């Protein structure tokens, strides 16, 4: 039985004060227990969020990290700096980082390994562009991204990874994938992981859908057996909307 995951990706939104107000509002209501809730915030808000989330069961994540232990990498943040302040997750290979910050399958692989070595849970993102989808290359593209992202990882490591399937054309566009399509691609990703490792490993890996998930469409995604939760951008910025997403996660069978 895989525990559902509802992860918010705030992207470049919220100051420390705004982040704290969000968390206070979120904590003022009931949150269901049977769902792993994660907020991935910009670096400056992370220490305050970790402290404010204490005892709530909400995990705090970063949106990136560097693969090196330390060194001359101006502007970068290491895994040890994140774990040192109590961060437990890190998004890796988001399509915005691949598109605007030259992330490649190779850097994704290196970052994933570093995250795991430091006990962080990588939320590893894959997904095809509109052009690739129109050329009916979705499965081929996603398979290649998965194979390269997981290269060199052992079974025990892979079981700790959360995979997020985010079709690029569905991100921030209000044009979500259909739940059936997302379920099919994620089922394909699970078979890919089973090919690379074995069925038992594949059965344990949590796989999320991301791309225009909102309170009014999340239930359809979660009704798909292969989809274990959601990675949410826009709809994670408002505490009421995020609470509804978490509540939907708590009802997943
Ligand atoms: P939206 O939910 O705003 O489409 O963003 C999805 C996303 O990129 C989450 O990582």
Question: What does this protein structure show overall?
Answer:
The chain has 253 residues and is α/β, with parallel strands linked by helices. The protein has one domain (5-250): Alpha-Beta Barrel (TIM Barrel), CATH 3.20.20.70. The chain is 43% helix and 15% strand. The protein has 12 helices and 8 strands. It has helices at residues 16-27, 46-53, 79-84, 95-100, 105-117, 130-134, 138-150, 155-160, 179-196, 199-204, 218-222, 239-250; strands spanning 5-9, 36-40, 58-62, 89-92, 121-126, 162-165, 206-210, 229-232. Strands 1-2-3-4-5-6-7-8 form an 8-stranded parallel beta barrel, surrounded by 5 helices. Helix 1 crosses helix 12 (239-250) and helix 7 crosses helix 9 (179-196). It is globular and about 45 Å long. 43% of the residues are buried. The mean pLDDT is 97. Residues 9, 94, 166, 171-172, 210-213, 231-235 line the site of 1,3-dihydroxyacetonephosphate.
Tags for this model:
single chain, 253 residues, alpha/beta, TIM Barrel, 12 helices, binds 1,3-dihydroxyacetonephosphate
Outline:
This protein is an alpha/beta fold and 253 residues long. The chain contains 12 helices and 8 strands.
């Amino acid at each position: 039985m895989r525990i559902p995951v509802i992860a918010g990706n705030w992207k470049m939104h919220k100051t420390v004060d705004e982040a704290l107000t969000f968390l206070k509002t979120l904590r003022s209501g009931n949150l269901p227990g049977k769902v792993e809730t994660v907020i991935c915030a910009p670096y400056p808000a992370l220490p305050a969020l970790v402290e404010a989330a204490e005892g709530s069961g909400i995990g705090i994540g970063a949106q990136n990290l560097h693969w090196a232990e330390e060194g001359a990498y101006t502007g970068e943040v290491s895994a040890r700096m994140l774990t040192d302040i109590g961060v437990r997750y890190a998004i890796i290979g988001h399509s915005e980082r691949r598109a605007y910050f030259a992330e490649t399958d190779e850097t994704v692989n290196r970052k994933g390994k570093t995250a795991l070595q430091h006990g962080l849970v990588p939320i590893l993102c894959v997904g095809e562009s509109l052009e690739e989808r129109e050329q009916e290359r979705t499965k081929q593209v996603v398979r290649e991204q998965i194979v390269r992202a997981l290269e060199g990882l052992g079974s025990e490591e892979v079981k700790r990874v959360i995979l997020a399937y985010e079709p690029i054309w569905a991100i921030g566009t209000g044009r979500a994938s259909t739940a059936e399509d997302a379920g099919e691609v994620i089922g394909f990703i699970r078979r890919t992981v089973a090919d690379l490792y074995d069925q038992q490993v594949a059965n344990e890996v949590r796989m999320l859908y991301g791309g225009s998930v909102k309170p009014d469409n999340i239930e359809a995604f979660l009704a798909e057996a292969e989809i274990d939760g959601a990675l949410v951008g826009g709809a994670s910025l408002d505490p009421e909307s995020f609470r509804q997403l978490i509540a939907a996660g708590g009802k997943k069978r």
